[in-house]
Design a protein that fits this description.
Length: about 280
């Protein structure tokens, strides 16, 4: 069982990651706040609790790999990587700048990024290839792929899921950020995929659910997934888009929204208050 102090620390890290994202977006610039904030606790658990990887062993063949298939959530991944000291903090001020390191979507020019992602639907295929290669090398490393719920309408995901089950790739764990919103509105109103758990199970995957804003629940899901042998696993994360900032929660306008001075200050105050409560 994970200690209360560890859970408290992971919750504190999640708030810190959200504050980093807020800094990256800044004033009057469009930025993917919603889908980044919904993944804060998951990134905290993966980078600061579960994954075996570090800047000192960035090319270690036995490192764990994380692919953010929903590449528009890159800011939350950058936020975790800067806290792990993969690159200098000053880069947070230069996101998407011509002379900056951090791109609008994950790119392998950025230390700690394993694959170019953002063209939705491709991340699981890339992760599957990595997992198969690691198995051939008899490596203990695992591959984690984070997808969006809107992304589930991409056909390539289902080709990869069928292949992963066929080849019994049990060193692969996928996550679905089930925040129920995509760029233009509710996922169910745009391209509904009902019974998501049953659909993945029908493709031969072991399926788990977790509260995506509770580190203990996420950890439990990962531990259960890693105990599965002979098939891949997927963890469906029940999340809220824009989690942590009241006006952004459940609001599709902040999929890639702009913060004016008033909304930026309000978001900053709410996150600072959350940090003080932990």
């Amino acid at each position: 069982m994970v200690s209360e102090s560890t859970i408290q620390e992971l919750n504190s890290i999640a708030v810190k990651l959200r504050l980093n994202v807020l800094e990256m977006i800044g004033l009057n610039n469009p930025g993917h706040l919603g889908g980044s904030f919904s993944l804060a606790e998951t990134m905290a658990v993966l980078y600061f609790y579960r994954m075996k990887m570090s800047k000192e062993k960035i090319k270690d063949p036995d490192r764990d790999r994380l692919l953010l298939s929903k590449g528009h959530g890159a800011l939350i991944q950058y936020s975790a990587l800067v806290e792990k000291e993969f690159f200098p903090r000053e880069e947070l001020k230069r996101v998407k700048a011509i002379n900056g390191l951090l791109q609008g979507h994950p790119d392998t020019s950025i230390p700690g990024i394993e694959a170019v992602t953002g063209s939705l639907g491709q991340g699981l295929s890339i992760g599957l290839g990595m997992a198969l290669a690691l198995r051939l090398d008899k490596s203990p490393a695992r591959v984690f792929v984070v997808m969006g719920d809107g992304e589930q309408s991409e056909g390539q995901i289902w080709e990869a899921s069928q292949a992963a089950a066929t080849y019994k790739v049990d060193n692969l764990t996928a996550f679905i950020d089930w925040n129920k919103l995509q760029a233009m509105g509710p996922t169910k109103a745009i391209f509904e995929i009902p019974n998501l758990e049953e659909k993945w199970r029908s493709f031969g995957w072991e399926v788990f659910s977790a509260d995506g804003h509770d580190p203990a629940s996420i950890i439990a899901g990962i531990e259960r997934a890693e105990a599965v042998k002979g098939k891949p696993s997927v963890i469906i994360l029940d999340t809220v888009k824009g989690k942590g900032v009241s006006f952004a929660e459940g609001n599709p306008a902040y999929h890639n929204g702009v913060l004016d001075e008033a909304s930026y200050i309000k978001a900053l105050r709410e996150l600072e208050a959350a940090k003080a409560r932990i």
